[in-house]
Write a structure and sequence with these properties.
The chain is mostly helical. The chain is 73% helix and 3% strand. It folds into 2 domains: 72 residues; 44 residues.
């Protein structure tokens, strides 16, 4: 009786084409394999779409920066703005509150606050240092951002 059962198991096991020793049912194995392929192709398509979108974003950002640069007026306008900060206002062309008062109108009642303010103004850093420092800081930040985008 034992030999008959063993013979039946061996016969069913070896002659059943829909069975694999390691993976089990061949039909289930084919289904799992097809699902893996489908997931793999979906991931690849998503990855390619992300690459294309990132390229478009990068290109559009640089185009926008170029358009703003042209709208401002280019290098000459930026140079003019920097010159206006560094040189300051021309006292002959504009009358402002801080413009020096001619000596005919000066009078004093013994206060020396005006002299102290002038000394403090002379001790502070010139505006050119602030402008140049700001440009350097912005340039460094721009380089860091560009390098970070290249690594992605």
């Amino acid at each position: 009786m034992i030999t008959g059962e063993t013979e039946k198991l061996i016969k069913n096991h070896y002659f059943d084409d829909d069975y694999d020793d390691f993976f089990g049912s061949k039909k289930k194995r084919r289904e799992r394999k097809a699902k893996r392929k489908a997931r793999r192709t979906a991931r690849r398509k998503k990855r390619e779409l992300r690459k294309i979108q990132n390229r478009e974003k990068g290109g559009s950002f640089l185009k926008d920066v170029g358009n703003v640069y042209r709208d401002i007026g280019g290098a000459t306008a930026i140079g003019g703005i920097i010159d206006s900060f560094t040189i300051g206002k021309d006292s002959n062309n504009s009358q402002s509150i801080n413009a020096p008062i001619p000596s005919d109108y000066e009078f004093s009642v013994g206060s020396s606050q005006g002299e102290k303010q002038e000394e403090e103004d002379k001790k502070s850093f010139p505006t050119a240092i602030y402008v140049v420092g700001g440009i350097i800081v912005i340039g460094i930040i721009g380089l860091v951002v560009i390098n970070a985008q290249k690594k992605k």
